[in-house]
Every structure is written in C-alpha cells, then in structure tokens.
Write a structure and sequence with these properties.
The chain has about 750 residues and is of the alpha/beta class. The protein has 30 helices and 18 strands.
C-alpha cells in the first residue's frame, strides 16, 4: 500500500484529495502547511514508517512548497520519495519545467484539475474515458440534483453546470468539485432583487442603479458603490448571501435537464466564493421536507440496518453536525437498526440524523437491509481525521483584515486586465512589468499583518491568479490585441442586454399599475410584452397567466373548469419555486374562487420561500379575517358542536396548564441568571415590550392583542426570524406573553403552539 503525504492549505481541497487517494486504497496523511508537513516527514522517517510519495502545493503558509521541496532534496534519506507538485499560480511552461527540474518533481498539476489527472500521475497511466459520463448530461427525473452535485464533488470537477427548464436557465460554476458562483435567468433571482430582499438597498436605489449603470458603463455593483448606496465589504457579504440562496434554490429544481461542461479556467469576472455542497443540500432539504414528512419517511426504515458506502464516513465531517449527532452517525453500522440508533437521542439530534441519512440515501451513500449484514473492514478505516482542520474557530481572521480583503476583491471582480493592473490601454511592456510586480506584492497574503487563512486566503489566491493571467495576456502583443477586441464586443453586448432588461422592467411597472386598477386584459398585454422583451423574466409570465385566469373567474363561462385551471397554475408556481410570486398569485386566485384552504396553503408556501415578505404576511392576515366571516354558517350545523369543542379545549388546557405554569414559575423565579435583552432589533418583527432570557429560554412580553390577527403561518415565520437573531445568545425556546393576558404562544425550531 502506497503511503502518501498530502500538503495543501485549502482544507476543502486537502480533504477532497485525501479522500480520493484513500479510495484508491492508499495510506494517506494530511498536512495544511509546509512546516507541519516537514515535521511529519521527519517523524515518519525516524519511526521507520517513511512516506513513499508527497503531493504538495507550491503556495503554503509557514513554509512554502518550494522551500519544503528544497529541504527534502537536501536530505539523502528522502531520495526515494516520489514528488507531485500542484499550483494555481505558477502555470507557465517555463515555470513548470524549472520547478520539475530543480526539485525532482515527476508530475506537475496546475489548478484547477480533475481528480482523474491526479490518479493518472500517480499510477503513471493515460487517462481513460470516464465511466461516469452519463452523469454529466441528463434529465433530473432520472438523476436527482443531489446525485449530480455529489458526482461533480467526488470527481473534483471544474466547470459549468447548466440547469434548463422551459425558458428558465440557471448556471452553477464549480472549482475542484465545490460550487463557487451561480446565476439565473429569473428576475426574482437577480442580484439586485436579492439586495432588496436582504435589506442592503431599497427598491428605489436598485432602479436608480440599473438606469445609471447603462449611462456610466459600469457594472451594477460598481454603480451602487459609486452612488454610496452600499460599501464594498457589504457588497461582498451581500454577494455571498445572494449566491448561497441561489445555490439552495438550485436543489429545489426537480424538472428539466442538466448539462455539465468541463472548463480549464473559471471565467475571470466570476467571484470565487467557495461553498460546501452538502450544507447547501441540507438547507434545501429543510425547505422541501417538513419534520412530519421526514418522520414518516424514517418509519419505513425504523427496523432496517444500514449498508454504508465507502464515502459515508468521509463526508460526515463536512456536515458541521454537533458532536452528539456526529458520533452517533459514525457509530451507526450494519449491525445496528435505525430504531436502536435513535432511541437514546434527544429530538433535535434525531432530526439532524434523519436529515443526513435521507440525504445520503438520495446520493446512494447508504442503503437498507432487513437483516444485519457484514460490512467491509475498509469502510470503517476509510477516513482521514480532519476534526482539527475543520474547526472554524482556528481559521478566523480579524474583521478589519477581512473587510480590507473583501473591499479589494470587489474592486477586482468587475475590472478588466488593464484595470486590475491599473495601467493605460497603451501601456508599454516596461510599465506592465512594473505594475504587475507592485500589484502582486500588494495582494500577497504575507502583506497582511498576522497572515490570513480560510476564505480570505482563497480570495487572495484568486486575485493573484487574475493578476498572473492579466500579465501573461497583456505582455504578448498578439494576445493583447485579441483581448482588446473581445473587450469592445463584450461591452457592446452588455449595454444591449441592460437596455432590454430596463425596457422590460418599464413594461412590467406599467402593467402592475393596470393590475392594481383591475384592468386585467390590458395588464396581461403589458406583462406579455415585458416577457417578450426579456424572456428570462419568468415572473412576467406568471403575472400574465394570472391576469388571464382573473378574467376567466370573473366571467360566467360554464365550460371553464375552475379546479383544473387553478391546479394547473399552482403546478406552474411549483415549477418556478425559486420565487414566491407564483404561490402568492396562486393564493390570490384560490381566494377569488373562495377556496380558502388552498389559498392558505399557497400563501404559506410563498411565505416559506420569502419569510420577510410583508405582502404575503398581509395576504394571510386578511385571508384569516375574510375566510372567518364566510364560514360562520357552519356553526349552525350542530347544536352540540360548540359545547364539544369547548370541552375539548378545556381538557387540553387542563392537561397543559400544570406543566406550563411550572415552567413559567421556574423561569420567572428571581435569580442572577435572568438577564434582559435589547429589544430594538426585534421590534420590526413584533410589538415587543421586553425580552428576558434564562438559560436557553426567553420570555417575550408583547403589547395587548399583538397576536390576535396574526395567522399561524405568519406567527411561525416571525418566531423563526426572532430565533435566528437571538440564537447567538444561546436561546432556542420562546414564550410569547401578551401584557394583561398572559401566555399566548410557545415556539422553538420544530414547532409553534398557541394558548
């Protein structure tokens, strides 16, 4: 068995390489800096357990890759050590040949590279045609999106995944198997729309920037910064949140086809913000599958035994589970039933475990047997310990350094090669050389006091790579000429696209005015015109179909099948669930048809997609009033019904009161552990008077009748918003008390109850 030392400071890439080599049945040890690698090499040599191969990145903290290789060359006991170098910076043929000759390197891989190239270099064999080509192109009804992402990750692929459904297109860019950027043809998933939803800018600022950017010839983000609507570091944070949400939405895609194109280089204008694909999958799963549905699915396998794939243990450290759930999943093997695993665990741990198992089943990393089976010994041993490496606390940089790096990064993202080197388009080769050296020194990780790590280090590596590409392109006359021509063409295309989008938005606004006046026919024509101008605007199409149905609902057409047509619209909303608009409009349609249960269901789905939407919350609130007034006649159906309901309520309250009073008294008993929490960050969610915390509980005192007209889904959404903001204080349970009336509701992450 070949013993290999993997030296790479990017922890995610290090783990990917290590796991790949383990699956090639090699003994693998990992190091994340040059000094640590040197110590491990010496220790192994001293103990008579020498390494046979080292895979080393050329840019490392503490001791650079070149310095590490020099030390190895200077020690005769390492003469038999095979050496493979990898780098994302030194890519020219001269640099590669010099490194190979100087350091006795047998193979040199330039980042990004697919893992099959590493296998080929180690085994010294030609790359064979991929046996998994079928998972690079296909239909999502044959291969679910989780399997597609897992395949890209497990092969360490770099490229672009296109997801296509009717007029809607999404693209996800991958670097070494990790998603780093995404975009969408949907207006509802645009960066400008996200900035508004995330409250970084107002709608008015978005529209102003959209118009001014065309006149100024700037990108949208640049325009916002120039308008002082947002700072550069906030722009980066907004971009990260936008990309994260867009990637989560990708996993809501269940129809259409996918195409994966391998790329040697990621387009230079794209940010490289690395995301953990498995955290994304779990986040999307929480939107798709409720706790109740998950429990029902688990019941199917409750008496079954797991059969684990060889990658099962390798992926667990990437899921950021709490220690109890992580250890439980590690110990879950082929002789333990699911019921036995869950019976000793708390409910929150059980839910975490069930979500992971459901995800792993989707990716074919686990299957089930009715009887215990014998597991291969290699599965239990097929793991490199990354527990220390994935401790996020050890990767932290100061906020000042992060802000400085994020600000510099946002500068470079929208710059062409001339701008990134800060040179004139007619600059001489001497000026290009000087500008390149100055910029490289400015962006080098060593130029930051105390050094950098984690995301900040990867960002700086990306900037350095952009600088290298700019220098290589502009220092050669032919490539410089070709690049200048390409810039002119792209600039013209970008301006044309921006003008079409702005025209579509103008048409949309006019149509919305007509819709507010209930001029459905004219509004429909306006929305259709917007859609024809900008076919990426799926929302325009949803509004046009909505207007058509509103006209039909207002007519006395006996041939019009209300149930069938409204279901068809609801299905359409489901297919475009990246936006809440479809479900919101479907709710309006069901409400007009006086089908209040379906209207409530649609509004609730819309609220799940955008919990901050005031329009949806208002729709639910008014629906509660409207439906209540419409169904009073049902009370007359039975004389006994009200008394039976009252009796049931009294019994339920009697059973619950003892426990609640006990918890309330326990909570409110004066002691030093109770503290007040500042309410100013929460008053926009509910009319809160005070918040008092003890341990993991918080008592929230509200104004009188604050919850009276709030429907359950809206209350649930507001409670989750409060929990998301207050969780840094260690609170995961809320007691909502109205002044003068007492306890009115309880909520945690799993449920919300009224009293």
């Amino acid at each position: 068995m070949l013993k290999v030392l993997v030296v790479e400071d990017d922890k995610y890439l290090n783990k990917l390489l290590s796991d790949h080599l383990l699956n090639m049945e090699m003994e693998v040890v990992s190091a994340i800096d040059g000094q640590n690698a040197w110590e491990k090499l010496q220790e192994a040599q001293k103990n008579g357990q020498a390494f046979q191969m080292i895979v080393v990145d050329m840019l490392l903290p503490r001791l650079m890759g070149a310095e590490l290789l020099t030390k190895i060359n200077d020690q005769s006991e390492f003469d038999g050590l095979r050496r493979i170098a990898i780098s994302g910076v030194y890519k020219s043929e001269d640099d590669i040949n010099q490194i190979k000759m100087l350091h006795s390197v047998e193979a040199y891989l330039t980042k990004p590279f697919d893992l099959e190239y590493l296998s080929s270099a180690i085994l010294q064999k030609e790359i064979q045609a991929s046996s998994n080509q079928m998972l690079k192109n296909g239909h999502l009804n044959e291969f679910n999106i989780e399997r597609v992402f897992y395949h890209i990750y497990s092969q360490g692929l770099t490229g672009c995944l296109r997801l296509i459904y009717e007029e809607q297109h999404r693209r996800v860019f991958f670097l070494n198997g990790h998603p780093i950027s995404a975009d969408s043809s949907s207006v509802g998933e645009s960066f400008g729309e996200s900035l508004v939803k995330l409250a970084f800018i107002t709608k008015e600022k978005r529209e102003q920037a959209s118009r001014e950017m065309v006149k100024a010839g700037l990108h949208f983000g640049e325009m916002l910064v120039q308008m002082k609507a947002i700072s550069k570091d906030d722009l980066f944070r907004a971009l990260r949140k936008h990309t994260y949400q867009l990637l989560v939405n990708v996993f809501l895609t269940r129809q259409g086809r996918f195409e994966f194109e391998s790329l040697h280089e990621i387009p230079s204008h794209l940010p490289r913000i690395e995301f953990n694909p498995f955290i994304l999958m779990l986040s999307a799963q929480e939107k798709l599958i409720s706790v109740e549905a998950l429990a029902s699915l688990a019941n199917i396998h409750m008496e079954s035994f797991p059969m684990r794939n060889s990658r099962y243990l390798q992926l667990l450290p990437l899921l950021r589970l709490d220690p109890v759930a992580l250890e439980a999943l590690k110990s879950f093997h082929s002789k333990i039933s699911l019921r036995s695993l869950l019976k000793e665990l708390a409910s929150n741990h059980r839910m975490s475990i069930l979500r992971v198992l459901y995800l792993f089943e989707d990716m074919s990393l686990i299957s089930w047997s009715a009887v215990p089976t014998v597991e291969k010994e290699t599965i239990a041993a097929n793991e490199v310990d990354f527990s220390d490496t994935f401790d996020e606390g050890k990767q932290a940089n100061s906020k000042d350094i992060e802000d400085q790096i994020f600000s510099r990064y946002m500068d470079t993202l929208n710059q062409d090669f001339f701008q990134i080197l800060n040179i004139d388009i007619e600059a001489s080769n001497k000026e290009i050389d000087a500008a390149y050296r100055e910029a490289r020194a400015r962006f080098h990780p060593d130029s930051f006091v105390g050094g950098v790590s984690g995301q900040s280090r990867r960002i700086l590596d990306d900037i350095l790579e952009r600088l290298d590409r700019a220098y290589q392109t502009l220092s050669e006359p032919d490539s410089r000429k070709e690049y200048s021509q390409t810039l002119k063409r792209l600039s013209a295309d970008s301006v044309a696209d921006s003008k079409r989008y702005l025209q579509a938005q103008d048409n949309f606004r006019e149509a919305m005015k007509l819709l507010s006046q209930e001029k459905f026919d004219d509004a429909k024509l306006g929305f259709e015109k917007a859609f024809l101008t900008w076919r990426a605007g799926i929302e325009y199409r949803l509004y046009a179909e909505y207007c058509q149905l509103r006209m039909k609902l207002g007519e006395s057409d006996l041939k019009f099948d209300v149930i069938k047509n409204l279901q068809k619209y609801k299905d359409m909303a489901s297919n475009y669930r990246q936006s809440e608009v479809g479900f919101l409009l479907a709710g309006h349609l069901y409400r007009v048809a006086e089908n209040y249960e379906e209207a409530r269901t649609c509004y609730t789905k819309a609220l799940d997609l955008n919990p901050q939407s005031q329009d949806i919350q208002n729709a639910l609130t008014s629906l509660a009033r409207e439906s209540g007034s419409k169904i009073d006649w049902k009370k007359k159906l039975s004389v006994a019904s009200p008394y039976l309901k009252k009796a049931a309520i009294y019994l339920a309250l009697l059973a619950a009161t003892g426990g609640l009073i006990n918890q309330k008294n326990q909570f409110m008993k004066p002691d030093l552990e109770v503290r007040d929490i500042d309410i100013k960050d929460y008053q926009s969610i509910l009319p809160i008077l005070t918040i008092r915390k003890k341990d993991d509980m918080a008592k929230i005192e509200l104004e009188l009748d604050a919850l009276k007209d709030i429907p359950d889904p809206v209350l649930r959404s507001k409670c989750l918003q409060i929990l998301a903001q207050i969780e840094s204080s260690g609170v995961d349970r809320l007691y909502l008390i109205e002044r003068g009336k007492g306890l009115k509701a309880f909520c945690n992450h799993e449920q919300t109850k009224r009293f």
